[in-house]
Sequence to fold (690 residues):
Amino acid sequence: MEKTACEMQVEIKNADGLHMRPAMQFVDIANQFKCDISVSNEQTSVDGKSIMQISMLAATVGSKLNIKAEGPDAQEALNALKKLVEDKMFDEPSPGNKKRNHNLVEPHDGN
Amino acid sequence: MEIKKGIAVSPGISIAKSLIIDSEDYRIPRRLIKPSQRMVEIQRTRNAFRAATKELTGLQEKQKDIERSKIKDIFAVHLRFLHDRSLRKRITDLVHSDLVTAEYAVSTTLREIASHFTKVSDAYISERAADIYDIERRLLKQLLGSKREDVEHLTEEVVVIARELSPTQTAGFNKKYVKGLATDAGGRTSHTAIVARSLGIPAVVALEDLTEITGGADIVIIDGNRGIVIVNPDDETIRQYQKYSLEFKEFEHKLDAIKEKPAVTRDNVKIALLGNIEFPDEAEFVLQKGGDGIGLYRTEFLYLNNPSEPTEQDHYNAYAETLRVFKHRPVIIRTMDLGADKYTQSRRFAPEPNPFLGLRSIRFCLRNLVMFKTQLRAILRASVLGDVKIMFPLISNLHESRQAKMVLHDVMEDLAEESVNYNKNTQVGIMIETPSAALTAASLAREVDFFSIGTNDLIQYTLAVDRGNELVSTLYASGDPAVLRLIRTVIQDAHKAQIDLSVCGEMASEPEYIMLLLGMGVRTLSLTPPMIPEIKQIIRSVTIEDCNNIARKVLGMNSERQISGYLRNVVSKTLPEVF
Fold:
């Protein structure tokens, strides 16, 4: 099997950063791939498939993460993760558009 | 057999199997395992993860119909954690390397992760620590589940052992089966103490590592009279305690009979017996035990039991409740005595290197005038409801006493300006509990209406011994000649100045010192309410003449050993039934 290794930098763009639910989405996608995935910030490097380790990065909006993938589907994995982090922004609002609606339930318009 | 000494907070003896309650708010005690048990604990960890996953999946199922539910997402996140191999590995690695139980490894690991989150400055991320605690609880429930449920479904008598008990935990106690309480933490004002007293069962607190040395269903003796807990006693000890327990019950029964009788010596000298209390509801107890009033009303509970600083009204309500019970008898309210071992709720002190010599008690009050005045206002407002006296603790020089009185006068002026009623003749006294105060008692006596000798602190400061420190606690001795000479000085100076004097430390409730204190001239004792009948019994069996002779002899002795030996000997001759 062909072994490839590639790297990519992504930036956290959603207002609330890489909190629990985004961390869950991240590892869910990472776990769909065979390759090993590691994620690092300036201080530390962690397993991209462990929710404990990813959430402990505590990456806030604006922080840059380096994702490294190693294995047959490394490139696909990176593409998918970049899409989640930067394009879809974990389906969350950006700081500019920040209603800070981090409650996942849509609030009732209470009448 | 292991014997632990703590603080007795509720009297009585009980012998029963232990029930250990692990509190959610505290660390699971670190119990070590043998290397051969490693695999068992690792398997327990795995099982707990599996069971928790199952439970969570079930809960998630119930939320299925809800389109986008926050709870569903929380469960999903928690499930990812339970499936996270690196988390499980971190826990089983800890079991393996440190030889600890599954409970301990789970709790320690998840708390490390949680504390990592709380350190993050982003509020939204740091709040995620709550998720981690929730996962911890879920796993611990699997590991401890049955144990924790136990307390509500008891079928046999137990003594409850815990790190510390919360109100929620004690609410489920079945009075029929819970026969005693013992906790690692806590003090006289802790929740455990209150519950035990209200249930009328023995309790000992501040036992430090009791939960670590006690196993579930071990036989445990709780001696709430002497503050002793014995784990796995041998047969002989059990027999002794069964006998002692029986005697104690009979003795209590006998003492009930003298409650109504006055505390007078055989040669007709009247001794006032007052109660030391912490809580307003204890006033009733003092009355039941035959007390003549309250000689020491500690007010710290107001600060320790409240989530926020007590308001003037909180103070007032507590004092009013006590005064309802003792309408026309003296109630001496001691102003806040926090610091050192006890802290104010807001914990505004930076840790001090030497807290007992630091900013505590009256010193703290004089630096926090707003708080101090709030309490004084409430006491003065309550002063019209009965015979209230104010007492300042830990006065160590004349200046402090004057300062405290000045603050009191300011408050009186404020009240007068606002036309609020108070008793202008409210008596003001001080506690004599430092050697400096004892040695200058003659000048202090000219400033105040009464003295109360706090023997606990006076002994500790005179002998330079922290009796909480087991390395030196044997040096702590009420009968030390240095202590007795200071006490004599204070009594003589109070008599010369013709002001009231009482003794309110533990010495006033120790049978072997009663005759000595009376012989030294003490006529008012304030003590823990359960001891009032026993001390009254002693008073009614002696003559002041005998007491005077004893005091004269003792004050001529120069070693503590000689004094305590002599006292024990003479008291056991005079009062064979007490010893």
User: Anything to note?
Assistant: The interface with chain A takes residues 68-70, 73-74, 76-77, 80-81, 84-87, 90, 113, 116-117, 120, 122, 124-125, 128, 131 of chain B (CB under 8 Å). The longest strand of chain B covers residues 13-21. The CA atoms of residues 267 and 543 of chain B lie 5 Å apart.
